[in-house]
Amino acid sequence: MPVTIKAEIDIRPVLQLANGLSENAIRNAWRRALRKTGDWVKTYVARSLSGEIKVPQKVLKQRLYFFLRSTMMEGKVWLGINAIEAERLGKVRQTRRGVTAGRHRFDGAWIYRSKRGSPNDGGVFRRVGRERSPYERVKFEWDEAGERAFRAIAAKAEARLFEILQQELRWEVSKVTR
Taking the model in full, what pTM does it have? Predict the structure, then answer.
């Protein structure tokens, strides 16, 4: 389920700082501001989600990407909200009732271990029905919380972009006036 959040930003008030700067200097400042804002969004989405759903930030940051299009001078932050495999949530431990992975418990699950070495080794599985053979890999659903956190941080991104753009334009001006 793709979620698209677009923001149209009027940067004319900020560009008043850019009087006397070349177009190339303004473009460089804009590119740096976009990149830094994208990194800020990634950090804050991972931080807020990690606290909410109790998943390590390292796992969440692997699902956040920032794309900078230099030709059109725009940036895009992408968040992959597919379910996370249980074994990626933290240390996996077999218990009497099931499996504990990180701070999450999965009742009726087991850790797959093969004697011959299999790509599924260390994976957490659970039976689908009452029979022995149909089983599936256990996954942690987090799409609703991820979308909610992403929207909350995206609402703050415009103000952060303006702040960083002002800093970058001041830096470009200070380079010219040296």
Answer: 0.82
Site of tokens 């996954």:
139
C-alpha torsion sign, points 103, 104, 110, 111: negative
How far apart (Å, rounded) are the C-alpha atoms in residues 63 and 82?
9
For residue 4, name the pLDDT band (cuts at 50, 70, 90). Answer: low
Give the residue among 84, 133, 137, 88 at the shortest CA–CA distance from 110.
Answer: 137
DSSP string, 15-61: HGGGTT--HHHHHHHHHHHHHHHHHHHHHHHHHHHHHHHT--HHHHH
Q: What pLDDT score does 2 carry?
A: 55
Contact 125, 109 (CB under 8 A): yes
Angle at 118 between CA 114 and CA 122, to 5 degrees: 70
